[in-house]
Design goal:
Layout (H helix, E strand, L loop, with lengths): L14 H8 L6 E4 L6 H4 L7 E5 L3 H12 L2 H15 L6 H14 L6 H13 L7 E2 L2 E2 L14 H12 L1 E4 L3 H5 L7 E5 L5 E3 L7 H13 L3 E7 L7 E14 L10 E10 L2
Parallel strand pairs: 1-2, 1-6, 2-5, 6-8
Antiparallel strand pairs: 3-4, 7-9, 8-10, 9-10
Helix pairs in contact: 3-6, 3-7
Length: about 270
């Protein structure tokens, strides 16, 4: 598996079944509007004429830009600089916070190659793979772990090669849709779920309602992952069932916070 970074909600475990259904589409443009870790894109089996990748989070897109534009040697030089200057941020709490604070002061929002590499290190080292940002930059806590120890030149080159074929965007979902020939597009949609585990970011009721209407009326092929709901009359593929505390997104459910068995599913319109 090609894997760039740890990311809460990544679909690494589901790429085989997702690919099974992507392969059934005859569309020529692949679009992933909620990119996150890019696990599905990096492990696509089907060839498309165009690949359009987008995320509303500027920090995510900066990581992808750095791995598209940079070289393995430049990444290794930066990692060596971090280790020499701050220590082992994967195992040392003190080193992690020193690096995090200096990154925020010197690199955050500079839109540079090293900003993307630094964000990649922080995303892969923070607790629970949940990257959080405040007014002063990255503020997730130390996680005492990292996947970067297994990241080698072969993996970098595979990621870099795939990204050379991709167009990267940093805009909102509906704006992106207005600039795509949807008749030719397959959309893999993995937005924040309508019901999220406690502590995760969710989506607004207004966005959700507009988004569902789009899914009902679009000419594109769509594969859409979410917690099971009854708002779409489409083929439904169960990805997994699990027990979790949920924090619903819709206003009429704000008072509900309880442990439930939920189904993670993928909706399909073709």
């Amino acid at each position: 598996m090609i894997r760039l970074m740890k990311y809460a909600g990544a679909k690494n475990d589901f790429t085989p079944i997702i690919n099974e259904h992507i392969n059934q589409s005859s569309k020529s443009i692949y679009v992933e509007p909620f990119l996150g870790s890019g696990a599905v894109f990096f492990n696509l089996e089907k060839h498309f004429d165009r690949y359009i990748l987008n995320d509303l989070d500027t920090n995510v897109i900066r990581i992808f830009k750095s791995f598209k534009e940079g070289t393995y040697e430049e990444l290794q030089q930066y990692i060596s600089f971090v280790n020499t200057t701050y220590g082992d941020i994967k195992r040392s709490k003190e080193s992690f916070y020193l690096f995090r604070n200096e990154f925020n002061r010197l690199l955050w929002k500079t839109d540079t190659l090293n900003e993307g590499f630094g964000l990649w290190l922080l995303f892969n080292s923070c607790i629970n793979s949940i990257a959080r940002f405040g007014p002063n930059g990255f503020n997730s806590c130390f996680g005492n772990r990292s996947m970067t120890k297994d990241f080698n030149e072969i993996m970098f080159q595979k990621i870099n090669a795939r990204l050379q074929r991709a167009e990267l965007y940093n805009t909102d979902f509906f704006n992106l849709m207005t600039n795509i020939d949807l008749d030719k597009a397959l959309l893999f949609l993995d937005p924040p779920y309508i019901k999220r585990p406690v502590g995760y970011k969710t989506i607004s009721p207004e966005f959700y309602n507009n988004y569902i209407e789009f899914c009902k009326t679009t000419n594109a092929n769509i594969l859409y992952t979410d917690i099971e709901h009854d708002d779409l009359d489409m083929t439904k593929i169960v990805l997994r069932e699990k027990m979790q505390n949920i924090s619903p997104a819709r206003k009429e459910e704000f008072t509900v916070l309880e442990q439930q068995i939920i189904k993670e599913v993928m909706y399909k319109n073709y």
